[in-house]
Amino acid sequence: AQSVTQPDIHITVSEGASLELRCNYSYGATPYLFWYVQSPGQGLQLLLKYFSGDTLVQGIKGFEAEFKRSQSSFNLRKPSVHWSDAAEYFCAVGPNANAGKSTFGDGTTLTVKP
Amino acid sequence: EAQVTQNPRYLITVTGKKLTVTCSQNMNHEYMSWYRQDPGLGLRQIYYSMNVEVTDKGDVPEGYKVSRKEKRNFPLILESPSPNQTSLYFCASSPGQGASLSGGYTFGSGTRLTVV
User: Fold this and answer.
1) Residue A22 pLDDT class (50, 70, 90 cuts)
2) Angle at Cα B62 formed by Cα B4 and Cα A5, nearest 5°?
3) What is the spatial distance between Cα B102 and Cα A68, in angstroms, rounded to a whole number?
4) Which residue, of A37, A113, B23, B27, has the greatest Cβ tally within 10 A?
5) What is the pLDDT of residues B23-42, one digit of tens each?
6) What's B3's DSSP letter?
7) Nearest residue of A to residue B55, measured between CA atoms
8) Three-class secondary structure of residue A61 per DSSP
9) Do A46 and B90 touch (CB under 8 A)?
10) Does residue A76 surpass a pLDDT of 90?
């Protein structure tokens, strides 16, 4: 069965500092991996995705993520956080071409200190 | 504007009274899915549909029904709602099968359901 673990429930960083949100997955084949962001009271927005090719992927709003198969990880990074990045972030595996199921992590809430 | 539209945004109902939450997308996406979001539990998949007339159970299908009679619509039906179905519900769609299914979801704005 597929699963996603986001080890950090809550992270606080200062504005301008770098950010890394962790995501570990379990999946039997090549995973299709995604990061989504949810601002308070809003729906979810796709930040970036990985399904093949370059293991470092770029997304919107200056985010990037690196797929590391050996560590079963897909960590999200941003070099300099802005106050507007405060939100909840979700890592997800799937769906893919052959399997419609998708699984989300429990989310990491990011607080940005001025 | 490309979007997924859910209705209603808010709904308070009583135990046992059948209800339907509608979901419609205007992007010609083949894949659609329903999730519920509860504090500390992330998003859990209820049902999904990879194409018209094809639906499958997600991780938490009990107490829910869906149908996919046409590509754009994917309603969520609660035949006999119970208080444990109080939650925030999201509909999502994704383009096509094959490699294009990797496009990621477009989400609706959510439906906050309270069952008393």
Assistant:
1) very high
2) 70
3) 18
4) B23
5) 999 999 888 999 999 988 88
6) -
7) A100
8) helix
9) no
10) yes
